[in-house]
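This entry is set out below.
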Amino acid sequence: MEVEEKLPEYTSVRGEARRSRSSLRSLPFGDFGTEALHQCAIGLSTLLEEFTTEVSRPQTEIIDLLGQLKILLGVSHELNTGAFNQNQGQTSDPTQDQLWEAVNIISQRCCNDTIGPLHDNLEGFKTLHSHDLVPRQFLLPREEIQLCQDALHALKYQTAAFSVLQNAIHLGILKKNLDSEDNLKVAFDVVATISHLVSRLIPELKQAPQFYPTRHEEGINDMLTALQIALSVAQAISINKHWRIPRSANRLFTGRREELEAIAQAFSGSSSNQRRFVIQGMPGSGKSDLALKYAEEHAMYYWGIFWIDASTRANAKESYAEISKLGGVEPVEQAAKHWLSHLHASYPWLLIIDNADDSDVTLEGLFPPSVPGFAQGCILVTTRNPENIDYGTTGSLQLGEMNSTEANELLLRAADVQKPWTSNPIELAKSICRHLHYLPLALLHAGRAIRDGLCELASYIKFFDSQASRIRSLRYKRRDRSTLRSQRRSSEDEKHMSIFGSYEILYESLEGAATRDDTGIFQDALQLLQIFSYMHFQNIRLDVLVHAAVCPIMEEKARDEKKKEKEEILERIGLVAQPPWTVRIQNLVLSIRRHRLFSLSPTLPDALKNPDELDAPQLQEFVKIRLQTALKVLVDRGLINRGESRDATTRDKLRYHMHPIVHKWIQERPQLSVAEGALSCQVATTVLSRAVRLVGKDTEGETAMRHDMKPHIDQVLHYAGVNRQQFQENRRRKRRYFWSMRFRASDPLEMNPARAEEHGRFSRVYMECGAFLEAERLLQPVLGYLIARLGHDYEITHQVKEALAQVLWSQTRWNDAFKLFREVYESRKKTLGPKHPLTVEITNRLGSAVLSQGRITEALQLHEDAKASLIEIHGDQHEEVLKTIGLIGRCYFYRCDWERSVELHRVASEGLRRLWEEDPTDESAELAVLSSEQDFAMGLIRITKDNYNDALEIMRGVMERTIEILGKESPWTLVAKANYGRILSKCDRFEEADGLMRQTLDIAERNHGKDHLAVLGGKAWYGQVLLEHRDLDKAEFYLRQAAVKEKYRKAAADDGEHPDRIMAVWLLAECLTKQGRVKEALELYEELKSNIPLIGGKGLGQKHKIARVLPRIIKDLEGGKTPSRELLKL
């Protein structure tokens, strides 16, 4: 009894074991069990220390137990502090309450079932044997030692469970402010810690030997429940912000747990280096789905998950352009890579580089650089190419066939065989899996065929073998004349026969259904599948198909409205255009050809035709429903897959995809003739071209849709080229096919009206995607064809010339662009008259081109002429009139007439802003306002210092709004930032100006190249700022780069010098003068004296302000005198 009276009341918390969450808020301090836990741990530690002080060599078990108790005391102290804060909270948080309830239950388990019984036993043992104790020789017997070992095991698991719960509680607090980069970094570490501990503890607990004296299973279950609660909290607070993945993993994904664990292990923990893991395997082995499954299961550990289509280098470039939009940087590959490489270290990211199979695509060139101090991402590569395995820095795996158990399960699930599976279907499935070499894609096809009743499990192998034999036979009959090529194809067929044969069963079932179907649904599905095979296999958008049906109607309506508006304008100004007789005759002939009686209908899928002549809204709804019905047939049969994106920007768009090897097979089926393939390719081309409008205002999302069309356009143009090569080869063999007469052209090798129209529409997509070389390659033959057929004076020729000029201008080939603008101007002036709206439009464009070459007087005259005509057409407050006033202001700016320039820009900017405020949703109008205000601000700083603050305020507004509209790295944004930096410099805020302009120049060089004319201009501006603040060595460095003559050859007039280079040389000469390098400065001034007359050509440079002051500067320097600031100031 005396012993019992001395025992502490360890059972005092037993009755509190399972309080409801709603009552926790009212508990007094300590009633989460943490106070009792702390006291229990102190009591046992004190007792064990007595055993260690009374012996010379303490037993190892006691030392280990004391160490574990110290760890528990540290955790319990933290929990005790958290319990106090939880009790002080004013608002209830159900998640936190649930975590604290778990803490309470585990605390009582620890006190009542682990620490309490051991303490009682040791205290009792010590009391009973106190008279036997021999100082420094006493040892615990085996029974008590075993109790200590059991308690040690229990305390390790309980302490780990407390640690997990403590992290989950901390995470719940952090979730309230994840916008902070520091908090996000901590949250990521906490999530990773919880996930790591739980993944280790749960399997161990399930296999752990009994360490609770009583109610062992209940104690284990309490800990498992607590761990699951903590894990659910971690999973609910995912740090994933960006999910840029085109589709989900296949919903029937089965097994591959070892492979998923290998990837997870390779990317676990943190690293100071970029980590890459390569999945290599044969087609159909499930590489892409494995990568997608890993991304889905581990999304919460990554701030961003991104995807690159590496099937071609061009597609990879486009994928990076899409990623760049998320970072608000310029949509180019280098900008996206730079953004990923310079993310804060708390932003872990995963990049999936998919289908990196082509040996021509260098995998290393697709990796973002690894930059120390920033986020080191994880890169997951899927490839067929074994040579790419070496790129795996943290590991790789060769994905082969599935194991038999998983393969059986996948097949039976795909076949929709109901569980429980008996021995008969399992044995039949084993035979099929073995026959199809355990390839997931082939098994999915087989399952679909069985599910749809095309065959049964028992008859599938026979069915498959007949298809494989038929494929071999047809391939032999249609073998290529080239023995080597024929052997290669036969080898590929055999290698992938399990995929091809299983897919062919599904394909032929669709063909059979199409012949028996009266509704047309299966015929629609078959036609769609055939044209999809000539588009890119990823990201096939439903709205592209719908637009292909309705855009021609919308375009015709917009064209009629535009024609009516033009006629009203001409009537208002009393102008009747009288083009030459040749043009009138050509117009008549073309209008006759366009009449439905004489023109051929485009080759389209039945689902996109409009036989009932519905209007655009009605047709759109009808076509959408019909397409969705047909696409559902294809998805249900497993012939294509529907992509479901978690990304908010694409979630509402229906997108479809095909497996690459299947996509290729449909084109190369031995049953498919060259004629049929060419026809399908042409239909796909027609569909894509009709989805691109050239007339009318875009509907919502139309620009983004066109951007997604580029990979598909790349594909159809590639296949069209292959077909033309085949046609040439057949022509040499004197073969003729009916398909050469099926299209509008009689000869597929030559340009024709249909192809010219397709190329013209596709060029718009390439221009919007920044693929200017591709756009030029399309437009050049179109222009040649139009000139040959219609001549230079026809309006469609003018339009193509203008489009090509814009493409060349974007490549800074200003000379070539200028020539085309000039040709259009002269032709319209001759055929339409100088006051015709189209002539006035090209007059302003030509004026801007002329000004860029330094022909200030000519540019000014052109803009003045355009202004007078526009006022007559629209009145003096029209948007186009105000824009033209701004262009005139630029001419005076180049002439260094600052006061006149500023006044004109003031009128233009105020008028444009007033018009924009009437419709503030028009972004293009707002950009025109911002451009005009920028010109106004840059003119203000040229007049007097009193204007500096006003100019700074205007320019800051322009810069900030431009960033909001166009992004932080668009070319116009970079110009605005640079100009803001120049004004900062004028306001004596040099450090800010220097940092901003240096950063802006780095971005421009990275995105556009160091020799781009705009980059050279930026270097001259930066050099000028450095010169003003006497950082002369640095200024010289940048000005010398901007003054290299060869870099301006494509932009300068044939008989002139480019004005931007003249300005760079002028500043460089001033820099050398300030450095005391008079001889070098004189050489540059003499060069200027020779070149100034060439600005703009025709000797017009003599009127430039520099030409008037140069003789005096040279005279001063030759006389040993420093030129005055007034002479050097422009």
